[in-house]
Amino acid sequence: MKTNELHKLYEILATYRYNSERMELMEEVLKHFMVKKDCNLDIPSKAREIFNKRILPLKSSRNDKNFLKSEWFKQRCVLLHNIPQLFIPEYLIMKFNPFSESFKNKFGFNIQSLWLFSFKLLEYLNFKKYVTNFKDEVYKFKSKEEYADLGFVAVPPALYIEKWKNVITNSISELERVLSGLLSSYELKEVVETFSISWDNLDENKIEINFSLKPLLKINDDTLIVLNPEYLTRALPVKCEQLFKDIKEYRDAKGKTFEATAQATLKMLPFKSLSFNVEYGAGYEADAILEFEKSVWFVEVTSHPPSDKALEGDLNAIKRDLKRSIIKCIKQGKRCFDYSTTQPLSTFFAKRKINGILVIVDGIYPQLNLNNYVSFFKEKMPIYVINWFDLRTLAEQPEIGYFEDFLLWRTQQPMPIISFDEKDYWAFYFDRYIQDERMRETFRIMQEKNINAFYISYRFNNKEYLENLA
Q1: Which of 87, 165, 162 shows the shortest CA–CA distance to 395?
Q2: Shortest CA distance to 195 belongs to which of 294, 113, 256, 253?
Q3: From CA 389, how far away is CA 86, in angstroms rounded?
Q4: What gap in Å lies between CA 337 and CA 299, rounded to an integer?
Q5: How far is 186 from 113, CA to CA, in rounded Å?
Q6: d(CA 375, CA 388)
Q7: Residue 237, by phi and psi: left (phi above 0), alpha (psi -120 to 50) or beta?
């Protein structure tokens, strides 16, 4: 790799880090540079050019809801934003660890090596931030107009670029010291290969680069650059799903370990009664029945894994797989209503409570129950769809004792609030709706007049980039 190429790469990676609200756009700039190797590239100009090419179809299709949905799916924050680092180990251990021996037989190294590498390297990068006094600042927009300009990116100061370069550049010998006692040299080599893109193998015919699944760039045999540290851990669930699909024992299990994971999370909710694997009718089964004071929910778990194309990031495949999984679960949940007069379901229906369907989506799917913008069903009955990582996060919130109140509010129609995931709906309900009578009245008016509003919470999102506007 030439010196001027390396210098430009670090400038782009620092800008990528600095512009926290333009990550999707900066990934496109990074991809362009990696295949074109244009050292004269002006980063803000290239970002503007890429944005303009993306926005032209939007201008000509302003009323095309299908186009808007497609654009929504293209946002990396939607695909990975809902996966918090805190609960990734729990998810990985419960879902994949039962097949660890089969994984080792298939790939020649322990799956735990992959996990240890990811979390230990992320920890080491945080240590290097401290040592280099890297503050990890993000660009703070200077005006509302600048914030609204989605094609704008800011290049960080030279010192920022230099410090970030020192944080994300690692030698193999350096990693061997950091991971000593955790991974053997052979395991380190295999894991690095699994996570890496090679600079020498990139050309104009390989423009499809998935940084979430390949977050390391191999410059030479001894030098690695971390393209996006967050992907080391946040993308692990998708990475593991991709690897385990090649293991017969895992495929034959047909998602049973995820069903067990979902059931363990349901136990954390403030239920009145909870039943698992309830058999009814001619060999049918509800994954769970969850009863609260005022409502009963028939729970279905989407244990069917995404297709290979979806795991590779194919947007149409993601939409198709997600829609298929949700519709299948709703169909299974509605079947419970058809058997409402037969045992054991008649016991629950006889209580004269609100009856609804709760669908738990596997954590590797994005959470996209987004009302008018991404709507996969039009049923009038209460239906709640939630990603496992969102559900696991809500179970830890201080208001979890009022989960039923939130659930009944969240499933009312129409829902005028549009958020990225269920965490933000939770924050809106408890931080805004419950706290402010005027907000409740405004919410009612929005329902009556069919007005929508986007909401991103302070509770679950770092809004440092808005400090100058506050």
Answers
A1: 87
A2: 113
A3: 10
A4: 13
A5: 11
A6: 19
A7: alpha
Going 21 to 312 to 85 to 173, the CA torsion angle's sign is negative
278 phi-psi bin (left φ>0, alpha ψ -120 to 50, beta other): beta
Instruction: State which H helix or E strand residue 310 sits in.
Output: helix 308-311
Each residue's pLDDT tens digit, 323-336: 888 889 999 999 99
Q: Virtual CA dihedral for 121, 123, 124, 127, nearest 10 degrees? A: 160
Tell me the CB-side half-sphere exposure of residue 15, using CA atoms within 13 A.
23
Q: What span, in angstroms and rounded, lies between the C-alpha atoms of 6 and 1? A: 7
Give dist(CA 95, CA 107) in Å, integer.
18
State how far Cα 272 lies from the chain centre. Answer: 31
283 Cβ contact partners less than 8 Å away, ≥ 6 residues apart: none
Distance CA 99, CA 102 (A): 5
Q: How far apart are CA 361 and CA 368, in angstroms?
A: 10
* One-character DSSP codes across 214-268: --EEE-SSSEEEES-THHHHHTHHHHHHHHHTT-HHHHHHTTHHHHHHHHHHHTT
> Which residues of the chain, if any, have pLDDT below 70?
55-82, 203-208, 313, 315, 366-377, 470
Give CA–CA dist 388/264, Å, rounded.
Answer: 11
146-148-151 Cα angle (round to 5) = 75
Sign of the CA dihedral with 35 first, then 39, 44, and 46 last: negative
pLDDT digits (tens, 9 = 90+) for 196-216: 999 888 766 655 678 888 999
- DSSP letter at 272 equals S
Integer angstrom CA distances of residue 284 from 39, 277, 324, 339, 455: 62, 9, 19, 10, 39
Neighbouring-strand partners of residue 417:
453
Question: In the numeric block, which tokens belong to residue 208?
Answer: 């499809």
102-105: list long-range contacts, CB under 8 Å, 24+ apart: 102/247, 102/248, 102/249, 102/250, 103/243, 103/244, 103/247
The whole-angstrom separation of Cα 15 and Cα 360 is 37
Q: CA 193, CA 216: separation in Å to the nearest integer?
A: 9
Q: What pLDDT is attached to residue 366?
A: 67
From CA 216, how far away is CA 230, in angstroms rounded?
11
Measured CA to CA, the distance from residue 31 to residue 77 in angstroms comes to: 17
Parallel/antiparallel/unpaired status of strands 383-387 and 354-361: parallel
Count of C-beta atoms within a 10 Å radius of residue 234: 22
Do residues 388 and 329 lie in contact, with contact meaning Cβ atoms separated by under 8 Å? Answer: no
Indicate whether this model's pTM tops 0.85: yes
